[in-house]
Every structure is written in C-alpha cells, then in structure tokens.
Amino acid sequence: MVKRRVAIIPARGGSKRIPKKNIIDFNGKPMIAWSILAAKESAVFDRILVSTDDLEIAKIALEYGAEVPFLRKKWADDHSTVSEATAAALQQAMYYWQEEYSTVVQLMANCPLRTGQDIVCAVASFEKEQRSAQISCFEYGWMNPWWATRIDDTGQPIKMFPEAFDSRSQDLPKLYCPTGAIWISDTDALLTYKSFYSPLHVFEPLSLRSAVDIDDYEDLKFAKALATEGEISK
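The structure corresponding to this sequence follows.
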C-alpha cells in the first residue's frame, strides 16, 4: 500500500445564506473551480477529491479536473461538522481506491482566493515541522478584536477585554482568526478525532486575501473586491 497526499474539497449542495454557493459564478468560473485549480497548480497531491451530495456540483467538479467517484450519503446536513464529512470522505476514498494516505488536506470551496503556492507553502510547513494537524488563519488588521464589545438593552457597551481599552493598538499582542482555506492533518489523527482540531493542532498564518472565506453576500462582495486587485492564479 503506497502512502499518498489527498486533497478533499467538501461542497454540499444545501447552502442557505447563498443558494448554490459552491458553484455560483466567481470571476468567470464556478466558485469551486478555483479550489480545484489551486490544488492542481500546487502539484502536491496524488488525488483531488470533491466530497458532495449534489449531482450538479459533481458534474462541474469533474469538468475542472477533480475526482468524484462517489456521492456523500451522510454528513450533508446543517448540523454535521465539515471535519466529520472530510473524515468520512477520506475513509471512502481509502476503501474505493485501496490506497493509504499519509496526509489529508481539506480545501473549502468557498475560499477562491487561496492559491496553489499557498498550498505548497502550507504543506511544506506541515511536513517540515512534522505536525499532526495544521489550520490556516489570518492576522486581524483594521478590525481590532481587543476592543470588541457586546451591547446591552440600554445601549451600554460590555467590554470583552476591558484591560485593552487602556492600551494603544500597536502595544497589544497580535490576534488571529481561523479560516477554512487550508486545513491539514495526519490521516490517523483525523480518523481518530474526526476533527482537524486534534490535541496537537497548530495555526499557520495566510495573507488576508488568500484567507477570505465566503459565507454570505457581504463576504462575496469583499472577495470580489480583493480579486480585482490582481489576477487570480489560473
């Protein structure tokens, strides 16, 4: 049994906030196409698998060069985690192709600005540091979470980090937010914990542009604005 790297792109058909989100047009191609093309461009995978429950998504994925040998039968509802769906797809792939994989890389279809080079760098870091799980993130920029507040019924702010309000922004530690762009795991760890947030997971920073995660129409507008700043890798 040969050990290989497999990319898994989860793409269920039942998106609510943006109907058919994974295949809507983004800069002239279906959204999912950008993730497939980035995976191919990276040239680090033995398999690029799209895990979907939707025949239309499967058809488009095949057209752009991914493999869709089976449809997702479970983990396609609003309550299942993406990690569970990816772990199930990994098990199906191992059984279907009778192959073992040393590394599984999850690439969310709604992160179209992540590039092949981003994937190459992330995989290189994962393997160089001999990590068991690695989750992409980005550094907060103009939004400063240290000054985050809730607002009560009277309009009064409830400060989440009250001590930070006495500090200048440049004196506060950097904060990072996870993004679904590139999640990597040792296959044994993912199958054991059914999550990329396994006990020894680490965060690996990406640029804000590469990290953009599209969940609603405001995110979509933001991603399209960033995309106009330069050409997306084709």
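The helical segments are 31-42, 55-63, 82-97, 116-128, 187-193, 208-211, 217-227.
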